[in-house]
Amino acid sequence: MTTIVTPRPELLDTSVRPDNYLTYTRGFLSWALTLDHKRIGVMYMSAVLASFFVGGVFALLLRTELLTPGRTIVSADTYNQFFTLHGAIMVFLVIIPSIPAALGNFILPIMLGAKDVAFPKLNLFSFYLWIGGALFTLYSLAAGGFDTGWTFYTPYSTTTTTGGVIPVLTGVFILGFSSIFTGLNFIVTVHKLRPPGMTWFRMPLFLWALYATAIIQVLATPVLAITVCLLIVERTMNIGIFNPSMGGDPVLYQHFFWFYSHPAVYIMIVPAMGIISEIISVHGHRQIFGYRFIAFSSIAIAMFSFIVWGHHMFVSGQSGLMNTIFSLISFSVAIPSAVKTFNWTMTLYKGTISLTAPMMYGLSFIFLFTIGGLTGIHLATLNTDVHLHDTYFVVAHFHYVMMGSALIGMIGGLHHWWPKMTGRMYNEKAAIAACIIIFIGFNVTFFTQFMLGSQGMPRRYYDYQPEFQIYHVISTIGAYIMACGFFLCAACFVQSLLGGKKAPANPWGGRSLEWQCTSPPPHDNFSSPPTVGNCYDFSMLRWDEKEQGYVVDKELEALAIAAEARGHS
Amino acid sequence: MLSTLTSIFIATASVQAAPPVVTPADFWLPIGASVQAHNVDLMFNIINYICYFFFVVVLAMMVWFVIKYRAKPGTRIRTDGMTHHTVLELSWSVIPLLICIAIFFFGFTGYVDLITPPKNSFDVNVTAFKWGWQFKYPNGAQSDNLVVPSNRPVRLVMRSNDVLHCCFIPAFRVKKDIVPGRYSTLWFQCDIPTGIEEKNGYHLFCTEYCGTGHSNMNRRVMVLPQAEFDEWLVKQAQWLDEIPDDELYFKAGPKIYARCQQCHSLDGTVGLGPSWQGVWTRLTSPGGARFSDGKSYADIIGPGKEYATPEDYIRDSIYNPGKHLVATYGNVMPTFKGQLTDRGVDSVIGMMKHLDEFDAKGAWTKTLPPAAAKTESKSEQK
After folding, report:
1. Shortest CA distance to B173 belongs to which of B35, B46, B11, B48?
2. Which residues of A touch B107 (CB under 8 A)?
3. If you average pLDDT over every residue of chain B, what do you get?
4. Total domain count for chain A?
5. Domains in chain B, start-ordered, CATH in brackets?
6. Is the pTM of this model over 0.80?
């Protein structure tokens, strides 16, 4: 029950810069061939953010096209390609790798107290697989694009005349392996590289979340690989698997696809939930409420995620009995989600809450996830889903969960660990302003779409009835507001890199191990094996003006140790 | 909580017994015009109120705690918060679970009503294709819009010619995917006649993405009183036969062309299929290579060749669209075998021969002699 954070004299002296992972070696190859999980994490983050920009541009083009019924800026075929690209890029290139591969890679080993992940070379390989997958996706554009929707439903995907279908499927296949290897790496790391004292129930909740995610990645992604292979086989060799004109069954494809893609939703949201557990407790300076319930709810969500895929298919021709079973099981996901939400909220109770930029994202997450989660009830309920299926209600629902929750969680996490990753602080006020603008823009964009959907507007529509226009206009305005927020957020980060204040080791007052090493961390993370304590006990921290960060107060620490001893006696 | 659930139960039970009413459009839902709509809407609204409740609880707690426990400069970190509370945590696991099970149950019973058609239903055959709908009635009548009798359960027996489609009628709260290779069914009953005017009909959408024309696969559902419907049905079955042969091309042609216009323009605009502009000239005068296999029209049309006349070629292109593809176009056109009768094909061919009499939208620009105008207004069809 001791700790490490003591102000280091060399930190205060600007002439002696401690060695860190950024300055450890120099040159292009030192990055391209690095085995350092931190550098791989940073490369992933840059690549993911670049993809996010591209996916976001497509989103803005879509919303602009939908300003008026009929043609606004592009033709129907182009629009179909746009929404397909927006979906495929955001899902496969952005959200799935964003938290585990980008933030997770950087944070997981440090948080765990390890020097690196279990298989550093595999880690680098999985990054290059990601690059390969992304290149195939790019190539598919040159090969004629694809207009199948990110779901690649057959027989449309096997019969469409656009030339980019096979390249993008190959890309998805490769990206899947990237995801599997990251998952595998994390599972082994968590099992094998925990330092002495880091028991399962001392692990920060972000690690529980990454562990649960890794299990889903390893178990579910191979099914996607198989599905994609079968699709390529059918398209190139005309072997009837999914196409009824060759003796196949299109509904079989949907089963295969959702058997991966429903768990994939949890690959996106579970790590974001882990980030929120960290943000709420660290910036609230308050022991997380109900640690075990939150930890087990991550595992529960991971398990349930495998047996609810059929709720995407209530009107697909799946039998009524199957629909009933899937509807019932789908409600089970509501319970761990509700537990998490209530526990986060209760964590704020009697906290010492700093309204920092990460905390603003954390609070936004709770707000948006509550809406996203609750509207899932409408869709899990059989008779209401029949009306709402494949309308904008579904679009709004999954954007609240995948963007409003998973992506906002990722951006929040990026703000949370930015000082650690770059060694620089950002302009807090501007970052908070960006968060508020994004929050407002998001709700204007997507809350409107709930109304659109329940009024009966189908999704993936290029043209629409004039009575829906007002909703579309509001939604598009929201998208532009959101874009402004993201640009401000990006500007904050650029400003921070160019001239940000130097970050202290512990700017927010966290107690997990990554806050014990310098910002940015040294190449080997820890010079000596770290001492593991209760990562949610904030009682011994105090703000230090000189350090401009939190430090462990010796007196408070002694008090805490005494209290601990009393508790044990 | 228990009393709330009981009252919901009673409310649902009493509604099932009550006669169906039209629910007007509100903030969330469009007009509910089928007998099933009321139950779906009730469920939707109950879930909505549950959502409002939990949302407000979470939001209020969050805002209150953030304001109350906000760190002030110089304050020590509080340490008096509890780390867990098993009873509290179990209660917010178990109570939502019970609510969810209740919602599931009512959703399930509502769903069974929604998908089980009564025995005495009136069947309409539906064919969905890229990108349109064909509604066929027991007496052989066909229609582009769905016309159904009121006060009677209607069952749609649906099939697809090509890819997945989905039939969605928001006002009836019904939806069902149409999967190629199998029949799917959907039923509803609407007790509020709309009349035959297209603009008064309810929307029917395709909600499974199917390509370029996906968002144009919308039609209207018109509901007629039984007697009026019967009359319409008889007339609809005969409409092509009632038109004299020499008037087919301008009376029936444009109506049939409405189904072709998404892909085939009349003014040379490049679409998914070749434009009809100048088609007859192309077919009857020898030209260069015009098919994707390198053959020209003259190679396959003519006495002793594959098609004796251009008419034969057009007819076969409608029934077997993939046989000869015009160069640069893909094999995307569905067959119209069984949908277009010989007289229908005649109308199309007639229209192709007289394209100079039509504008770019397919409207006939000539006027009828006064005597013929009378018959025109009499045989005006939907």
Report:
1. B35
2. 327, 380-385
3. 83
4. 1
5. 2-68+84-115 (no CATH), 122-240 (2.60.40.420), 243-378 (1.10.760.10)
6. yes
